[in-house]
Specification:
The structure is a homodimer of 430-residue chains. The first copy, chain A, has 430 residues and is of the alpha/beta class. Helices cover 43% and strands 20% of the residues of chain A. Chain A folds into 2 domains: 238 residues, Aldehyde Dehydrogenase, Chain A, domain 1 (3-Layer(aba) Sandwich), CATH 3.40.605; 156 residues, Aldehyde Dehydrogenase, Chain A, domain 2. A 7-stranded parallel β-sheet of chain A has the order 10-9-11-8-7-12-13, with helices on both faces. The interface between A and B is large, with 64 and 64 residues. Strand 16 of chain A pairs parallel with strand 13 of chain B.
Chain lengths: 430, 430
């Protein structure tokens, strides 16, 4: 029992047992204590800026020496601005309403008992993430507010930064009289630790992975506990046959080009046959000016060829294009017969993330809303709005492309459950 | 590719693809069509009584010849009364409100978009059950009402009955203009079919097993899709130090003895030290009269020994007793210091199903309600109330002892999800 696997097992079991124990105290904690911990954490982050940046420098230097990409090194860095944002976000989470303990739907039943529901924490969640060390503070602050315990497993490249940040969290918890074990960082970088974390249903209630599709697929395949997972964001804009063309051009432009890398950016444009002639040349001119590559069906290509500057950016779409999340200045474009064909295409090729219809037709709008089977379905709005902050959640721990439990942007509520409560005065079942 | 496993794979993939396809039409179906299918089904079940009983006789005869237990054969039988109950339950489900399409929480955001949620079906669920053929109709009717498709896998002993019932469902769906594939029965009894059913995330969104703990544990371990599962019901009654003794005796009696086999029957009695002297002899007399075996801690045993008729029913409890669901005229009994010890004992030994406190102390009642981490937590009411019908769900597809998605009794809402809807008039993300 002294193999590395065995000792990782012992380590993770211990972490898990302590998290479960701490989760009970967190579930009992009052709003004032939880908010105090969050405000203390903001203070500690500001006070410890220099020592945090010192720890961070070890990771950043190692990443540079290892020849990692500049964008990666950039995400790793805890500059003054990033640290201040982290502190401010703790204050914002403190200002959110406390979801825990709320009782709803209380109803008197014929038997005389009163039945309702009480919102309670899930218990313990495991957060697995890649390079960004700010996820340590995001996950910690949401765990504290929602009365859960969390086990954090960050990328090995950020281990020194994450350790220093986790120490700050521990100090804040202590100062607020909450258990330090409510937020624990897996202290080792062995891969086997992830394998343990996702297969301890006794200690961990749900896993939230953040990172590339490969990581998330692997975790989902191997986990023995529920996973709140976000895979592709193959988001569609459908321009209907009856539509305000100015609005359609500006929303389509915004959905595709406002930023290319977020998961809620549009990747595919469907245009009703009746609108194609008037709409495609206009949006084609916008895309041409911005250098957006257009992967077209034959019909859309024919309409886009004459657009000045467009020709070098046009490609013939393959079947695979309809299924692809580019996260880049590329969009697939298809002319469809109308709303029925658009809904069918999206339900077949989409990733159940976010899709929007641009239309003036009420019946089409409502059918699209009801029948498109995605986490977020929109009428006359940019897919880029699909976001916890824009939706008013106040915080976002992730986005779920599943239907079970939480769907779409996941805020504090996704880290909670509802139990049944029954208030009686001696009722018996007959 | 002509091995039995390969052909089962082909069969199940075909079933899954057809269920997924049918689920889209079910999601679009209106309340009137769905209710019509349910009322047609009630009619078909009554009209086909004789042919259903003929098919059922094949299963019953085979079960008797195989020497299966009388209780098993009893559950298998489709007598006149059982069939009438099945038909009536379809009418009851038709009378329930349709959860699908309801939009809630619509709020205007600072960006100008209106954000809310719409209740939608989960898609396809798989129902795996043992002997009772009436589950075929229960699951079918709840699938129809909630706009889902279902794949049913019943016990091999009921295959002729289930096939005949599934035919009735198909006829009702057809008459209502809904897709026949919305309710499909796995037509073969091979075990490999279950293995396929629980590992097709492309086609199946959630699995609901009903049956013994062994079956449910095996399915949970092997499933690659979420499982709404119900394991133990180790339910507790805690009698507090400040309590109306008459009420405590009658509720404890009801929780334990009203029926022994349901999962919401009490299995363990905790008594506050201050109440033990007055309470235990009284409940001991009730249990003695009803022949309930009492597995006691030393303190409770000492108080129960003098109760007339109790002595032959007293045993010393072992550690294992605190974790055991007896489903029989047996109860474990422990004297505890007070509400803190009771909560700690329940959170350690309970099965997170249903637990009740009997008390006159408001602070203790509220602490118990908040801190006991179970699906249903009660004050001054019998654990036997933990039931979808008693809670007002109108129907029950199962009971969940998990916290994720659905907790406790699961009605139509547990078969649904909420998607985000965004209503705009051309808003752009800045």
């Amino acid at each position: 029992m002294s193999s590395p696997e065995a000792s990782i097992h012992v380590l993770m079991t211990d972490l898990g047992a302590r998290a479960r124990e701490a989760s009970r105290a967190m579930a009992r904690a009052g709003t004032a204590e939880k908010n105090r911990a969050l405000l203390e954490l903001a203070g500690v982050l500001r006070a410890q800026r220099e020592s945090l940046q010192q720890a961070n420098r070890v990771d950043v230097d190692a990443a540079r020496q290892a020849g990692l990409e500049p964008a990666f090194v950039d995400r790793l860095q805890l500059g003054d601005k990033v640290l201040e944002q982290m502190a401010a976000s703790c204050e914002q989470v403190a200002a959110l309403p406390d979801p825990i303990g709320e009782m709803t739907d209380l109803r008197r039943r014929p038997s005389g008992i009163t039945v309702g529901r009480m919102r309670v924490p899930l218990g313990v969640f495991g957060m697995i993430f890649e390079s960004r060390p700010n996820v340590t503070i995001e996950a910690a602050s949401l765990a504290i507010k929602s009365g859960n315990a969390v086990i954090l497993r960050g990328g090995s490249e950020a281990i020194h930064s994450n350790r220093a940040l986790a120490q700050c969290v521990g100090r804040a918890l202590e100062q607020a009289g909450l258990p330090v074990d409510a937020v624990q960082l897996v202290p080792v970088t062995d891969r086997a630790a992830v394998g343990e974390l996702i297969t301890m249903p006794r200690f961990v209630d749900v896993i939230i992975p953040r990172g590339g599709k490969g990581l998330i697929e692997r975790i989902s395949a191997e986990a023995r506990v529920p996973v709140i997972k976000h895979l592709d964001g193959n988001c569609h804009v459908y321009v209907d046959d009856d539509v305000d063309l100015d609005m359609a051009v500006s929303v389509t432009d915004n959905a595709k080009t406002q930023r290319y890398s977020p998961c809620n950016a549009a990747e595919s444009l469907l245009v009703a046959r009746a609108s194609a002639h008037a709409f495609l040349p206009r949006i084609g001119a916008v895309f041409a000016a911005k250098g957006v590559e257009m992967r077209c069906c034959a019909h859309s290509r024919a309409l886009l060829e004459p657009v000045p500057g467009a020709a070098p950016l046009l490609r013939d779409a393959t079947e695979q294009d309809w299924d692809t999340e580019y996260l880049a200045p590329i969009i697939s474009i298809k002319v469809v017969d109308g709303v029925d064909a658009a809904i069918a295409h999206i339900n077949r090729h989409g990733s159940q993330h976010t899709d929007t219809i641009l239309t003036s037709n009420h019946q089409h709008a409502m059918r699209f809303l009801r029948e498109v089977d995605s986490a977020a379905v929109m009428i006359n709005a940019s897919t880029r709005f699909s976001d916890g902050f824009e939706f008013g959640l106040g915080a976002e721990i992730g986005i779920s492309t599943d239907k079970f439990h939480a769907r779409g942007p996941v805020g504090l509520e996704g880290l909670t459950s509802q139990k049944w409560v029954v208030l009686g005065d001696g009722q018996l079942r007959r």
